[in-house]
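Question (not urgent): is this output format expected?
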Amino acid sequence: MKHLISIFIGMSFISSCFSQSKINYPKTAKENVIDTYFGVEVKEPYRWLENDTSAATSAWVKEQNTVTKDYLSQIPFRNDLKKRLTALNNYAKYTSPFKKNGRYYYYKNNGLQNQSALYCQKSLTAEPELLLDPNTFSTDGTVALANTAFSKDGKYLGYAIARSGSDWNEIFVMDVETRQLLSDHIQWSKSSEISWQGNGFYYSAYDAPVAGKEFSNKNEFEKVYYHSIGENQSQDKLIYEDKEHALRECYASLTDDEKYLFISITETTTGNGLLMKDLTNPSTPFSELAPGFDNDYSVIDNVNGKLYILTNWKAPKNRLMEVDITNTARENWKEIIPETENVLEHVAIVGGKIIAQYMKDATNHLYGFDLSGKKLYEVQLPTLGSVTNLNGDKKDVEAFYVFTSYTFPPTIYTLNADKNTSTIFHKTEISFNLNAYQSEQVFYTSKDGTKVPMTITYKKGLKKNGKNPLLLYGYGGFNISLNPTFNVSRIPFLENGGIYVVANLRGGGEYGEAWHMAGTKMKKQNVFDDFIAAAEYLIAKGYTSKSKLAIDGGSNGGLLVGACLTQRPDLYAVAIPEVGVLDMLRYHLFTIGWSWTSDYGNSGESKEMFDYLKGYSPLHNVKAGVKYPATMVMTGDHDDRVVPAHSFKFAATLQDKNADNKPTLIRIDSKAGHGAGKPVGKLIDAQADMWSFVMQNLGMKPVF
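Got this back:
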């Protein structure tokens, strides 16, 4: 590929007049690469961009970033916007506490720290002590904590780190009393739990990848190991592997008493099998507790010889089951909390009570039950919104949860499970007049008649005259629900008359597994139809107009934006596909992409599936001579979940074929991945760039 470097010519010239400027993009080399699917030839001129470590790709990335930075630097209000975002982000951020061995632990960011640090307190009123500060892991904040877990006796803290946004994790162990780092070091783990038992822990890991292909090659043959403190990783005991199924993942977990070990086995992002082993009798083999892969099974805990399992087996909106340890055959499972019309999202056992978190129309409700399933009370929440990080101990009446909504900053509550009383543990203090804004939920009709919920947030006194700038956000996949959340990055947009909208599309989990499945595989077009219908509704009702409408989404939501901008380029003024799955014919060939086939299907499985995927794949539906919205593709060079090749190839194609002179840019963040663990400094930079691009191309003249 060395010969490709020399052809990058025509560097950008951006005049001071954005409305009439023509950007000179780098010339992207084309190769004569053709794939054949079921007799159909598909050209792949930018296949070389899949080699993310080549000199040619590195040069292309540098040139594209130069063009993008030149454009963004000339937006007159970008610097003021960044200052406003920096000020807004400068507030103390806390996570919900959790209790271990009589001590309370939580994460806190003082404001503009790149990473949140782990603190401990002997009581809720005691002076906090700094236990672990990931800001010391690197000088630029790009090494983040990915996971932490304390041993049962509280002596050890196992923690995983992620470098530069990668999904690859390294696990270390600290002596909690001395704060000393031990010699233990685990590599090539990926999104694994650290499950303590005795003087060690269970974890999942892959074999070391091929050098130079760590962030792109397919991940295969994950295994579960047990690591004893003080030993080298090479000495770790292999607990579980599947030599016949390369593309299965496996995760270990234990009951709180460390008596029972579970291996959850998945083939895709939907459904899991569940194996169980009695650790009080180590000679016994694993037994199958639940078969895969048609349903989901999540073990909550063991209470007096009874396992509590949250599942959608014969209950698409989930139910809670009780399983006798001595009689685990599935036909003997007992229903404790039956399925209802609302989705049972999460369960915690606290002080002999079951605290159940439900979702109704994309908002949360909490209820208390006794262990037999009798409803005792509803926890009164401040308003309609979201509950996150609900946790507690089965022997302690004290639990914690976070409540938030689009106009309600995260507030941490302490719940007394006996008395059903909630008190504020920490309230977010932010310099913003929240009372000046409101959210409303509406239900609109999609193309096939389906009613879809959508939440619209704006400054009070809004006039529906079609002149308001509006950003529409969506996801629509993998059973993931978009519940109300607060994010300071939206504030400058709202302050300047913008409207922020979230549509709860099919493919998500807002109404259970049926809602999810209605947006998968051969029904994936429903998701795009839902999003397009949302845009049309907002225009028809006078909230905005085509020239004032921007769309945004990340990951699967990046696919959503890519598909909708290629299907209805006339409908939006701005499009922001972030870390998107944009090549639907080859996504399954990279890293963990094969696990998404439950939602997407596979281009090689049948002619029908190939035709369907090619019919909406954003990369393959950019047409020459079509005028597309102002677009800024966003990705990270270390994204090993949705590899940046998706964004690279899509941006190159759009630049080549777009008939409009509106900007078609790609922003490639360095030492950044899919989003998790991104340092605050990089987050603010990305927010400033994204919102500057949106506001500029919606014709806004913001004041900060």
